[in-house]
Write a structure and sequence with these properties.
Quinone Oxidoreductase, Chain A, domain 1; Rossmann fold; 11 helices
Amino acid sequence: MKALIYRQKNTLADFGITLEEVNDPVIRDTDLLIRIKAFGVNPGETFFRRTIDAPEGAYRILGYEFSGIVEQVGSAASGFEVGDRILGIGDFTRHGAYAELIAADYRSISKISALVSFQDAAGIPVGTVTAYQSLFRFNDNLPPEVKNVLVLGAAGGVGSMAIQLLKAKTNVTVIATASRQESKDWIKELGADIIIDHSGDVIAQLKENGIEQVDFVFSTNGLKSAESWLPQVIKPYGYLAAIEGVEVNLWQFMNKSITVYLEMVFAKSLFGVKQETQGDIIKEFIDLLLAMKVKSPVKHIIKGLSIDSIFEAHKLLEQGSTIGKIVIDLQEE
C-alpha cells in the first residue's frame, strides 16, 4: 500500500514525511482491516512528528481517526462485516491512517449510515471521544451539581465537539472562549450560550453575562494563559478537565479543593480499560448527527494522499488558528 511515513523527527522547514510503498498492515484477532476513504489530521500528530523519531531502522505512519470500508474482519471482532462503512480511532503505538489501509481494533470503531459522507465522518472520532471522556466521567454524565461549563479553546476540533455534546446531552449553560470573529461565529453556530473573548478581561465579561463562578472548566487549549484569572472564577469544589500537557501551578486551585481530570484519548486502548465504550461514544454522536442535533466539525477538506496535502494540513495546524477539523480526502473524483 501507499502511505505517508517519516523516520526522523522534523520541522516544517525540513519536512520529513514522504509518500512510499510499504507493507499492508496485518490484522490482530480484534482488528478490522479498513480501506481508508478519508482521515482527520490533529495537532497531536504535528507534535509527534516534531518530537519523536521512529524506531531505528523503521518508520512511523501517523493519523488516528479515519473513515472507510471494512475489507477484513479479525476472528474476535464482532458486529462488523466486509463492506461496512465505518469511522473510528486507531492506536498511536501502531501505524496510523495516513495510508491506504489501516488495521484497528473494532472496539474503537462504529458503523456509519450512507447518509453521512466519509469526509464528514473522518473528522468526528478523536474530538468526540476526547470531549466525551473529559466531560462525562460520572456514569456518562456531568457531575449533578454542574450548571455551567466553560470551554477554553472552543473553536478547535475538540472544543467544537464539547459544545455540541453539552448542548445535545445536558441543560447546562455553555460558555466558550474565542478571540477572532471567525472563531466566535463558529462557536455561536454550534450553540454556545455565552462567548468570551479570552484576549480581553475575562472576569469582567463573565460578570457582564451574570456569571460569578464557573462550575466546570474544560481546557482544550489556552490553560496556561488562563492561569492568571481561572483560579478566581472556578467555584469551590468545582471541576477542571484538561487535554493539555502544559505546566500549570495547581497550588492555585488547592484552597478551593478543585477536582482535576487529565484526558488522553488513547488511554483506554493503551491499558485495556473499557475500550468498547469508545465505539459506543462514536455511535452516539452519529445518531445525534442523523437526528440533526449536532454537525460534523469538518471545516477544511484537502484532497489526496500526497506530501503536499499533508504538509498543508500540518502547516495549518502549527499556525494555531484553525477552526473545526482538517480532513484529507482519499476518494477519487
